[in-house]
Write a structure and sequence with these properties.
Layout lengths: L4 E3 L6 E3 L3 E2 L6 H10 L9 E2 H11 L10 H25 L5 H5 L2 H16 L3 H5 L2 E3 L4 E3 L3 H31 L1
Antiparallel strand pairs: 1-2, 3-4, 5-6
């Protein structure tokens, strides 16, 4: 009896064998794109759907320099909005307090909110980038191209810095209200 488990030779995720895509000769452009990054890969080994979509996206002009998929971007966007909402609700509840240390606590929900929104907009998770990983909605996998990994790492650091500066500005505005 044949095993139903399949391990994608590109991202190393394990899945049901019936989820494997075998690329046809008409998909030669996708095959060529995969071979650029994985010269050891053989088309007969198949590929998982997220990997196929990733390489197809590269051919359609989508940047390969992203490390979160559509679901991850949605999650970060909504986390950002909720965190900013919490920050503003707290800001209005404590606005009559004269304790600047209490206002300083607002930095944290503002930071989380801005971090989520920046990550969603730039399609980059700062923490995954720092670890050299990507999650295209199927679980974390390593970024195999060191040049792309370095670019993602720098973008992740930039996102962190922009989030901190925006949160600091929002906190100061709240302090001055």
């Amino acid at each position: 009896m044949e095993s139903t488990a399949y391990r994608c030779p590109l991202c190393h995720r394990t899945m049901e064998r019936n989820l494997v895509l075998f690329l046809r000769h008409t998909d030669q452009h996708v095959i060529d794109q995969i071979k650029k990054e994985h010269p050891e890969w053989v088309a007969e080994d198949g590929v998982c759907k997220p990997c196929s979509e990733y390489y197809q996206g590269q051919l359609n002009g989508e940047s390969p320099e992203v490390n979160i998929g559509p679901q991850g971007r949605r999650n970060r966007f909504w986390m950002g909005l909720v965190s900013l909402g919490v920050g503003w609700v707290l800001a209005f509840r404590i606005r009559n307090q004269s304790n600047p240390f209490l206002t300083a606590v607002l930095f944290f929900p503002f930071f989380a909110g801005m971090l989520g929104l920046f990550q969603a907009r730039e399609k980059t998770c700062a923490l995954l980038a720092a670890r050299g990983l990507r999650n295209m909605d199927q679980g974390p996998a390593p970024v195999s191209d060191s040049k792309i990994a370095g670019h993602l790492r720098r973008r992740g650091q930039s996102i962190f810095i922009k989030s901190a500066l925006a949160a600091l500005l929002l906190t100061l505005v709240t302090l001055l209200m």
